[in-house]
């Protein structure tokens, strides 16, 4: 059975599979200097943003990705004060970072300003911390930003990137990770999205190898569900300049009043468990 034009379908390249979402309307379509940005209203997943035809964020499931991209890294650091987000144009990760009271500065460096401006209109709940006094939005090349950063500028670097193709490919390189190491303070932590463990195991191995080659002391991958991304299962790979990835402030992450919808200290610990086929 083939689906008609009332469905948005993304084919997952080379995997013989796809995802389809029933749409009510397309409400925005523009070509930015970098990519095509489209916004749909769907029947069951709320608002959907796609970039160059690939799902980026939906109302229904974005919280899992944004929470797992931010909280494990920030709770692994003993006292995160200065945080850098590379990419993350929808601002959901920035919003989660700013839930941490220890954070004094959160800088977001996104290449395409139009992604953020469109998100501000169609995903206002993700952007509600953009005017926080601790937030700084920069529209620039994240690779160059990190390369130019003064040594010891940040406690945590979060690489909330698109797939490792085109301009984003450099965000998965040993050279970039070496620059992250330099930009981090002694207890620094870096985390980057690392695609599907089911579809992209070779990439995860490559990312781990590059982190270690760059000089990070300890590296581990976290696994979590993300139903609108390829395979419905996603990952983020985290590395520590000093200390162990397995050691995190579980008591702080379990504290009352820290509002999340997916992340908690038990999820954090479980996400570090490796499936047998990835050992």
From TrEMBL:
It holds the Pfam family Spermine_synt_N. It catalyses: S-adenosyl 3-(methylsulfanyl)propylamine + putrescine = S-methyl-5'-thioadenosine + spermidine + H(+). PROSITE patterns: PABS_1 (PS01330), PABS_2 (PS51006). GO terms for molecular function: spermidine synthase activity. One of its GO terms (cellular component) is cytosol. S-methyl-5'-thioadenosine binds at residues 35, 110, 141-142, 167. Residues 5-241 form the PABS domain. Homodimer or homotetramer. Catalyzes the irreversible transfer of a propylamine group from the amino donor S-adenosylmethioninamine (decarboxy-AdoMet) to putrescine (1,4-diaminobutane) to yield spermidine. PANTHER family: SPERMIDINE SYNTHASE, SPERMIDINE/SPERMINE SYNTHASE. This is Polyamine aminopropyltransferase.
């Amino acid at each position: 059975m083939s689906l008609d034009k009332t469905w948005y379908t993304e084919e997952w390249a080379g995997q013989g599979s796809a995802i389809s979402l029933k749409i009510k309307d397309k409400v925005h379509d523009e070509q930015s200097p970098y990519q095509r940005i489209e916004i749909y209203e769907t029947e069951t997943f709320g608002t959907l943003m796609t970039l160059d035809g690939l799902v980026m964020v939906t109302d229904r499931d974005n919280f899992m990705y944004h929470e797992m991209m931010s909280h494990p890294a920030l709770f692994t650091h003993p006292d995160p004060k200065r945080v850098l987000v590379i990419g993350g144009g929808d601002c959901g990760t920035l919003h989660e970072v700013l839930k941490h009271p220890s954070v004094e500065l959160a800088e977001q460096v996104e290449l395409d300003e139009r992604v953020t401006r469109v998100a501000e209109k169609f995903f206002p709940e993700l952007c509600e911390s953009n005017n926080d006094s601790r937030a700084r939005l920069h529209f620039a090349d994240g690779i160059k930003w990190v390369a130019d950063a003064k040594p010891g500028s940040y406690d945590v670097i979060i690489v909330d990137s698109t797939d490792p193709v085109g301009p984003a490919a450099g965000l998965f390189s040993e050279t970039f990770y070496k620059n992250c190491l330099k930009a981090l303070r002694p207890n620094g932590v870096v985390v980057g999205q690392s695609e599907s463990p089911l579809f992209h195991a070779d990439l995860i191995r490559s990312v781990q190898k590059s982190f270690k080659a760059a000089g990070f002391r300890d590296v581990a991958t976290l696994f979590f569900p993300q139903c609108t991304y390829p395979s419905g299962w996603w990952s983020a790979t985290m590395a520590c300049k000093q200390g162990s990835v397995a050691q995190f402030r579980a008591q702080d992450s379990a504290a009352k009043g820290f509002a999340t919808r997916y992340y908690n200290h038990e999820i954090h610990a479980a996400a570090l468990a490796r499936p047998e086929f990835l050992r």
